[in-house]
Specification:
Largest sheet: 5 strands, mixed, barrel
Helix content: under 10%
Strand order of the largest sheet: 1-2-3-5-4
Order of helices and strands: EEEEE
Number of strands: 5
């Protein structure tokens, strides 16, 4: 049985201005090592969107893929929630 070893992330589309590319903001929470406060951080990933289907505000699942450009190494797998704009 082949097991999928690629990382998967869930985030929100913040930009879709490029052709077949979206920018996905992924938030994560972690506890500060010294003070113990829960801290929210985010990171933006460029992801390949083959059909130009994603709109700004959509919640999407992305997975690691082969390098497609200098910054694009992720692929949109599915749209979990559509933006209600």
């Amino acid at each position: 049985m082949a097991q999928e070893r690629r990382k998967m992330l869930i985030g929100t589309v913040v930009s879709n201005g490029m052709e077949k590319t979206v920018v996905v903001r992924v938030e994560r929470t972690h506890r500060h090592p010294l003070y113990g406060k829960v801290v929210r951080t985010h990171r933006k990933y460029h992801a390949h969107d083959e059909g130009n289907a994603c709109k700004v505000g959509d919640m999407v699942r992305i997975r690691e893929g082969r390098p497609m450009s200098k910054t694009k190494r992720w692929v949109v797998v599915e749209t979990l929630e559509r933006a209600n704009l």
